[in-house]
Each structure stands twice: as structure tokens, then as C-alpha cells.
Amino acid sequence: MRLFAIRDYRRLFSAQVIALFGTGLATVALALLAYDLAGPSAGAVLGTALTIKMVLYVVIAPLAAAYVDRIPRRAFLATLDVVRAGVVLGLPFVTEIWQIYVLIALLQAASAAFTPTFQAVIPDIVTDKSAYTRALSASQVAYTMESLLSPVLAAVALSFMTFNWLFAGTSVGFIVSAVLVLSTRIPNAPLSAHTKAWDRAAAGIRTFLRTPRLRGIMALNLVVAAAGSIVIVNTVNFVRDELGGSQLDVSWMLAASGGGTLLTAIILPLVLNRVAERTVMLTGAVVLVAGTAGAVTLTATGATTYPGTALVWAVIGGGMALIVTPTGRVLRASVGRNRIPEVFAAQFSFSHLAWLLTYPIAGWIGTSLGFTTTWAILAVLAVLSTVTAVALWRRTDTGEAEAPAGPGPVTPGPRDLAAADATQGTLSACQCSATRTA
Fold this sequence. Notes:
Layout: H1 7-38, H2 42-67, H3 73-90, H4 97-125, H5 129-158, H6 164-182, H7 197-210, H8 212-242, H9 247-272, H10 277-300, H11 306-324, H12 327-334, H13 340-369, H14 371-392, H15 414-420
């Protein structure tokens, strides 16, 4: 079955890509807005804004997954897009830092409800197994391309307009996304097998806590967050204050991280056909430890050059891809097909919980104690999390999970899945980039 021959999937994918790129532009603009209002304290402001985002993602996403079977999903998704468009349109008029926090809370509450709902729709529209695999692979490519191209597009746009206009472009993107969603035939969600809302929200969490390799993924989430927060939170201040760069330089440095992600994503599908997910993901953790150590070295030795910083940022981007990209394959192999949505929702919450810990470290401690101390703390956190992941996810893990709550056998383990189908693409993790939610 040709994936993009499916009309409804084609429109939903287009909606996702447009919203992703809009969000990517808004991320760059938000960093510049924080610097415009707070100057040297921009890292603390951005860290607070992103912490608010993560709190809402951790709390609201499971609740949205629990209640989405009670409301029309098409209308719900379109409404959330419209809400996000309105909130982003208000950001250029912000004059006080507290206003940023209020608008970010509204924006991210809508995004936290949108993402798990959107991802739960895909298997209802793309019912063929191989096509569904390609659909998730396409989402990974979309996330990866956004991480690379959004900063580049922002850099081009900033050459002839102020950053406030990036918010306007994001708002238009969300409206277009809403129109595409409304033009799609989206079936309402089937009723959950769990009668109580808490059971629906907690089912995936319980699976994570009792499955060794999924507990390992929880530790790897923290490695990703420790390294990624350096790039996401500290780039604007580091480039502007330490390197003496411009707004354009901030965008290009973010693009360097995206370039590392893209290059890795291009290579990974071939690698995953031959190498077990555990090996790839733990290698990614080691790469991220090296990246955080490189960041500390930059500031500790005073070797703060553009090429050196871009290299470290690219290494961090590549390491993140090594962990995030195979995560979906492991999740899918850990439970029966009827339980896939709940473990993806749980991964969405757990991954953002990791960012909730590291964003304040990068933002608040970075502002008060400086980059060297802050990045050293994050490097130590990455090392400890890597060691924990190795201990929790042992090489002898056979891939067996508890029996699914419903019909259908447990799917093969991650190692078996990697070798079973050479044409199978890399499945996207639910959050792929905590930082770029559709």
C-alpha cells in the first residue's frame, strides 16, 4: 500500500509538517524575545518558560489520552490548533516577562493535548501494518527536517524582518493546520478497555515501570534532556554574550545541532537493520556524554570559537538522534498492538519529565553560576543516567513483555524486530523532539 495515496493520512501529515515548522520558528523567536526583554537573564526566562511547558506536558498529556475517546477528535484537534494560533499571535505584543509565562502556559497546554491525540489518530487511518510503519518513519523525517530547516528559515527571515514577524508566521501555520485537520475524515476514538480515567491514564506508566528495557529508556530520556538543554536553553546567551554573535548567528548555531540530527537520521535506517536498538541507543548516550564534556571544555579552556561550538552542537544533535529515533521500535516491540498508544503516551510524559528536570538547571543555574558549572552538572547527570540505563537494560533482555490486556500476541523483542524486516523504517518516538511538538 502506498502511504501517501491515503488521502486522510496525506492531509494529516501535511498538517503536522506545517505545525512543526511553525513551532520551530516560534522557538527561535521566543529565545530572541526573551533576550530582548531580559538581556543577560534570558537563559533564566527561557528556562522558566520551557519548565512551564514540561510541567503541562507531563500532567496534561496522560489526561488527554485518557479522555480523548469521549470527544470528537477532529473538532478537538482543530480547536487546539486555533487556540495555539491565537496565543502565538499575542506573543509579539508582550512587554513584561510574566506575560510570556502566561501565554506559554496556554500554548503548551493546547500542545500537550494535541500531540498524543494526533498520534493516536494515525493507526486508525493507516490500518496496514507496513504502511503504519512507514507513517511513523515519515514523522521521524519530518521532526528531523524541522530541527535542521527551522533555524535556517528563521535566519533567512531575520535578514529582512524582525523576529516578531516569526510569531505571525507561526500563527498562520497553525490556522492552515486546523483547516487541513477539518478536511480529514478522522474517526472517533474507540472506547478504552479501562473504565476508570485513572486506569486509562496510568496503564502505559505501569507497563514502563515493570518492563526492564523501558525503564532503561527512562534513563536514556534523561541523557537526551541533559545534553539537549544545553543547546535549547543556553544557545542564545552563549552565542550573543560569549561569542559576540547576532540573531542570525543564534539561528545558524541551532541549525548546526539540527544538521547533526539529520545526518544521523539518514544513516540510522541502514544501521538498525544490522545492529540491535540497545547497542545504537547506548552508543548515542556515550556520544551525548562526549558532547556535554566538549561543551564544558569550550568554556573551561576559553576556546569559545564558532567552529568549535558548532562541532559540539552537531555532536549533541547526532547523539540525540541515536537515542530518540529507535525508541519507537522498542516501544512497539514491548507490548501487544492494542496497547501501543498507551506506552507511547507514557513515553511522551516520561521524556518531558526529564526535560522538566534539566531545563531549570540549564536556565537558572546557567544564569547564576555560569556556563562551565552548569554544563558540568549536566555532564555528570548524563554520565549517571547512561550508567543507569546500562544497568537497567541488560544485554540479555529477550524482549518479552507482560501479556497484553486484550487479544493479540506479544510482538517480538527489539533485537528480533530489527532483523525481521529489512524494509521496515525507523519508527518515531512519541515526542521525537521534546522541544518541537506539533
